[in-house]
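Please fill in the sequence for the structure shown.

STRUCTURE ENCODING:
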């Protein structure tokens, strides 16, 4: 599916619809240029899965993990330049039994588990974003 959202809230609502279809173990890749709305999308999904605190981009760590009713992992691989087995050892626990969202999945190479849904965001103008969701979840 592909839609244009007109506000961050609309992007969050769309993410919540996807979140309702996800289960622990699922990985969602979230691609798009800086400012496209990747973190906004993850925030909406995380809220829908029961995460109550702030959801912001991991900056000083590679990821956040929220032990909500459904554990939620949020990874940002922007600074990652290729993963080796040791780095994968650090990353793997984020995915354990969680619904995992990965920004900049392209930087993860072949190490990431297969995505259940592939989300791609792009700028239309200041307040509009094109959001494409590829999955077999019936969204
Ligand atoms: N329709 C929209 N969907 C998502 N974000 C939007 C939209 N319109 C404006 N924005 C703004 O764009 C910015 C997106 O930032 P962010 O989600 O951190 O992007 P990224 O993680 O892709 O770098 C936020 O400041 C947000 O308020
Ligand atoms: Mg981000």
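FILLED IN BY: designer on duty
SEQUENCE:
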């Amino acid at each position: 599916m592909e839609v244009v959202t007109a506000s961050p809230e609309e992007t969050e609502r769309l993410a919540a619809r996807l979140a309702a279809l996800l289960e622990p173990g699922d990985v969602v890749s979230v691609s798009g240029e800086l400012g496209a709305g990747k973190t906004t999308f993850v925030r909406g999904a995380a809220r829908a899965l029961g995460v109550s605190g702030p959801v912001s981009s991991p900056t000083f760590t590679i990821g956040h993990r929220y032990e909500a009713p459904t554990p939620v992992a949020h990874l940002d691989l922007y600074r990652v330049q290729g993963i080796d087995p040791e780095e994968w050892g650090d990353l793997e626990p984020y995915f354990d039994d969680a619904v995992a969202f990965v920004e900049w999945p392209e930087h993860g190479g072949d190490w990431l588990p297969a995505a259940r849904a592939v989300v791609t965001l792009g700028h239309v103008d200041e307040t509009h974003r094109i959001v494409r969701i590829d999955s077999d979840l019936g969204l």
